[in-house]
Amino acid sequence: MSDILMVSSAPPTSCESNTYLLFHGETLLSNGVRASLYTVALVYCFIGLSAITARFFKSMEEIMKHSREVVTIDPHTKAPVVKQEKVWNYTIADIALLAFGTSFPQISLATIDAIRNLGQLTAGGLGPGTLVGSAAFDLFPIHAVCVVMPRPGSKKKISDLGVWLVELCWSFWAYIWLYVILEVWTPQVITLWEALLTVLQYGLLLLHAYAQDKRWPYVSIPFLRGERPEDWVPPEDASVDYDSIHDTNEALPITVQNNEYSKVPDTEGSSTMDHLVKDTQEDMSWPSIWRQQFIDALESPQSKKMDSVCLRLTRIFWNAIIAPWKFLFAFVPPYHIAHGWIAFICSLTFISGVAYGVTKLTDQISCVTGVSPYVIAFTALAAGTSWPDLVASKIAAERQVTADSAIANITCSNSVNIYVGIGIPWLINTAYNFFVYQEPLYIDNAAGLSFSLLVFFATSFGCITVLVLRRIIIGAELGGPRLWAWVTSVYFMILWVVFVVFSSLGVSGII
Description:
single chain, mainly alpha, three-stranded antiparallel beta sheet, three-stranded mixed beta sheet, globular, ion transport, NCX_ion-bd_dom_sf, NaCa_Exmemb, transmembrane helix
């Protein structure tokens, strides 16, 4: 067993000068040129992640719109009453759909890294480094973007502080738990039971958040819930932000909203609208919608006559850049099918594929520049794989009337990063090592990773403190006076720079 340990835990082969990404001819170029080309390709992948995340967000909205009809009898008039009830709970949707979906690049990256390292008694550092860096990117730059998203002067606050506090506590506990199992419980070693407990805590998070949303006694914080919109995204905003063919149905007035009642039979106006909706759905069948996705991807939108020449050229250039991504993602089925589930799953598949490309590019950048892979993971890789988190939170901050989902996506994504993103890969590796070698999983550079966690704790305290002060002084976490919104945004970015600098120095052994 000692021989197996020596062979299996050997460090991976160092980067060789003849490694290349696609073509062997890349090695003929200088390292500076190669680094520049790989960086441009990396930025292009970030653009692709942004594009597919927008489609993923639409599919999730369709899932959230799914409701069922409940027919009851009015006790006074004895007439049938139809009530539309949402299938999904908003809190669970934020954790299970929004946070999990936007964290899927990190989860898939770490899982691929774990499968690639099967048989090695030492875990790969790519996944944990990226996930810790992603937590910092979620907490600081995404908050920095969201705080300036509301219109000038408008304010958006968290309507359910109890749910946010539960999610925040589980988020911080996730990183405390990670530090405990790395440095206190079994230093620099992860056992099968530790990995299993890490994954199970995601289920406890879902249960506790649901209990808080429903105000279960003894396990919920007795905070009153503020006004919360019935629709996850207001229908009147949907037609403004998206200009695709999908908005035809979304822009139609809705006669029966969640928790609003309508008597049966319908009034003349409601009956007319029902026929209109039915006729529109028949005309816009999903094959025609899917075909239109490819047409929209190949056609450039017409610029308005009032646009300047410079703006037109910029728009043409941007459309040319994003056209390949639009055509590729047009293969995602329309989100009208199966209440959006097929588009949701396909979007996650594309996100995983682009994230894998990001991983390969960062490997090459690390190879030709000599920068530590942990430093690349904390910066470029964390930012690239967290791009869906940024886009989803930005859209939620713009379109929702409250700040719940925008901020919940940040805190919940950090929890998902640990409980699922690190838990599942470690569970795969520890289970393999336990049944094959009867050995635990050894963590390389655990001291550097633990130091990064301590830096994250210190800087995150400064972030949450400012959010609380904004709630007390301004009355909202997002928006408010434009000057103070931008000051807050810059402050959050400074915290991110502090985390990146100190964490990079720590994992490099400089401090």
